[in-house]
């Protein structure tokens, strides 16, 4: 990891948007609206200050927050802009803790932007890291939950001023269920702030440096466009990933099931993959990739679909018949590969008990990512 | 109204159960389980103390509470017994107010018992009155909401220990929607305690003396069974009502729609009503009664269906083809007949805009009931 980010500029936001969308692995919601809000905060003279994990004090109170709801709704029902801030203040009132910093629950997609927006509004820094290192559809899939944080009380807010406190539940999954029911009544888009964590816990269990990672990833894609170099290779190098397919989408089946976009995509290979058939299975995010019937990548590793020509990420709702795509498999962080993590975010947790997770091998000798 | 009730005995509970079920107008849930819980509290040496409205001090804090959910589930998913108590304590924590008394949100059905149970557990009195004087399917149909009380913050609890605080919403209907979504996640049965009201407000807007009313109504039915007198006439006299039909159920259509039991019942007349056709339309409660196509009674007045022989009330889920029934129309309290009340609980509010509410005339000169 190169130099860590300290303060986010309007230009950085453009790069983070692209990087976050790539790390969204097809889901996570669109960071575009959040980027515009962040830019507006900067224009007002507010700052988006980033604090590296190692500088966080052990007894700091850190709140993980973000938007919750159906990504497809989030784009049309524009956020009022202070939902996360109100959720944060409601949580401060509920717990009596003064919050020192915020952190993203998931760096992939829209929730890369939300903590930066809230941090700028509240005048507190944003921790360089997140709870997923990618995007996942449900809250109990955060490393916070996996490694023992009790996320209640949580505070939820919507654009109309509604405030709901989920003070106690029997489990992290029960919290997810109550929050999901509440956000449906909020019109399928709202904000949630989870019970404060101590800095010591966050330092140990956050996926580290993921804002910097998104920034650098986005920058390298932008640069490759300017330099006319291959953006796909740029992403692969940057993320230590593998190209598992290039081809054309020849079949696409996608429907809404229980609030999630579920389905699969078939890709007919070209180039080095001529004559081969790729299949991607999805639930908001891309979960499993098979080549000629063999599993080549699966959760928690990242499956990313990029436009073959531009290297720009394609989210599940933007998939179209005939698109020419590159499918990339990127290794996830080791925190997502432990036994307790795989119970929650491994293939079986998503309904693929027949698939045994085999960690993607990293090409370089870097640890984690 | 004869002498007001001061303390509830185990024997009183039996009578209140019957009276509350009659006032439930087909809905409101079954008070049976709550009665057993109350009896158990008495057996433990706890008291169910009743305070008449006029003795309530103006600055007392009174909380309206009860069960929420699908009545049909409440019978099978037995409450743990302290749901309402936990909701009350969560509300005290949220508001910082020490609560002086509880009151029923609806006297009709199961929620006649819940505040008595909670009062016994918490050692505080139960106000003799309620927010409906009958049963209605939704919370904004309480006189509290109709006459301007803001019911947030509300606290909800379930049998597993979950606590949800609905701290702020844009309206009483929005509160109902959030609470309904939450209770579905609770397994369709939970408890809710609404924002504390001042004694002065409760004295003005509670339907008065309805625990005493349920007790006396139940007692008179029990006595008529012992004396072999006509229980139907007893109820009519007690409640100043009219017999609008006696007959046999010859058609019945009932289904679940949006969590409510919706449908209609056709009754073929016998006795004085031979040759006539009665139709009852229902949504959890009985809403509209037509005789040969003419509206004879509708909400907010009470439509009660009793077994012709025993005088015992029949709830919507107990309706069966071939049952011999008496249909009674009982006048509701004047607080339910104001313009602002009819907007929320008149026929149009239940989807019958073509029906103009004509208040049932009282036979006697009593005011209210």
Total helical segments of chain A: 11
Cα(first) to Cα(last) distance of chain A is 8 Å
Radius of gyration of chain A: 19 Å
Mean pLDDT of chain A: 93
What is the total number of structural domains of chain A? 2
Helix content of chain A: 25-40%
- What is the name of the CATH architecture of the largest domain in chain A? 3-Layer(aba) Sandwich
* Uncertain spans of chain A: 365-369
Largest sheet of chain A: 9 strands, mixed
Say what the CATH topology of the largest domain in chain A is: CV3147-like fold
By CATH reckoning, the class of the largest domain in chain A would read Alpha Beta
Q: What string gives the helices and strands of chain A in order?
A: HHEEHHEHEHEEHEEHEHHEEEEEEEH
* Total count of strands of chain A: 16
Greatest interface by residues involved: A-B, 20 and 20 residues
Structural class determined from secondary elements of chain A: alpha+beta
- What is the 3D form of chain A? globular
How large a portion of the residues of chain A is in β-strands, by DSSP E? 25-35%
What oligomeric state best describes the polypeptide chains here?
A: homodimer
CATH superfamily assignment of the largest domain in chain A? CV3147-like domain
